[in-house]
Amino acid sequence: MVFGVLLSSLFINNPAASAVPNSCKVQLAVGNSYNLTLPDEQCYDSINLGSYATLTIESNVEVYSSLDLGAYSHLNIRGSHARLINYGEAYLGDMSLVSNFDSFDNFGDLHFSYSAKLENFSSSIFLNTNRVTMDFMSSVVNDGRVINQGELSIRGNIQNNYGASFINQGQLIKEDIGVFENRGLFVNQGEIRSNGTPLEPWKNTGTFENMGSFLTNNLDQITNEGEFRNTGLFILEQGGRFQNQGSFVNSGDLVINGQFDGSGLLRMQSGNLKGSGLVEADIFVDSNSTLKPGDSIGTLDIHGDLALAGLLEIEIASASSYDTLNVGGLLSLFDTSSFSFLLDEHHQISDGTSFAFIKADGFDFFEYSSFEKYFEKFSSNFFVHNLDSNLNWKIRHKNDSLFIDFLTFQVPVSQVSESSTSILLLIAVLCLIRRPKNMSSKTQRH
Length: 446
Fold this sequence. Notes:
The protein is mainly beta.
């Protein structure tokens, strides 16, 4: 049975009424348990679906003030050119369902109530440019394409399936009980963050590309069994955990103050890694990447092997405040490895001060049997900034550590002796040149 009621009277105190085109109908109401199909292009001030009602849209439909789906109601968007555009406030009631086979554009406020669901089928598009809020147990299941250019707040579930794409160009906020699972392609070009106390982890088994900012809080859990690529900013806060069982490639800015672990390799490709957290994984730092312990001054612990082909930055503020790198596995150096030591220009380093800036279970000095031979070959790859003019420095290897020592600059005794001898010889030559001629002739006569 088909049932629909079109009302011609205007609503009182309707804030969006002035924006409604004159050609639009005022209201479409579908009664409880009734079905209605809209085959032609239409625009309405409001659409209301009663409980268990079904509305099928087969063409272009615009709603300017309110779209209200009652409990257990069903909205179908399907047809050769079907498109639903919401400019006002849309409310999906408890257990309501939106099946999008074509296009659903939200330019207003869209709220998912308890267990409300949006099914975005293959080849369909869901676009949000303003605000979407998802309540407990509500869900978005995407097999097509989702584009968020506004704010998307999740207390429900988002599932991006294999073959689907989800593009975030705005804000995606995961609330305490929100669930996010990516099995397809997820691209973040905006901002991702968590609020409250997350009870469910972020899950990725597909491809996750972070080109914007991903800001976790201190209790976030992230599991990656797919491919995770960061070219933007990713911050894992203290208390947070990233479990990597897949591939993680960082070509942006990665800050680890929490725990990063798993069997997968953490690969740095033209990226930056810093933080005071714990990495229980192997790390490869390529020649265009930078590794820095601490977010400012701090210690980075790596319970794995570190292949350092890029730059290690060490900040030294005082004798008791400086960066340290602890490697629980093998630290490998290469011909492209470089070291930069930044001294605090407001704090003077004392003569004889020594800093153990690296501690490792083992070392591999490229093609050389000792660090001394490695340093002799690649000393030009070591830089010290803001060094007092009366200080000299050297790098040494002892047991399981690398040290940088600062000493007062002194000329070696051997060089002093050679200089004194040269001066005495020069004085003797000058005396011979200036000797009187008569003395010379007397000498010659002898």
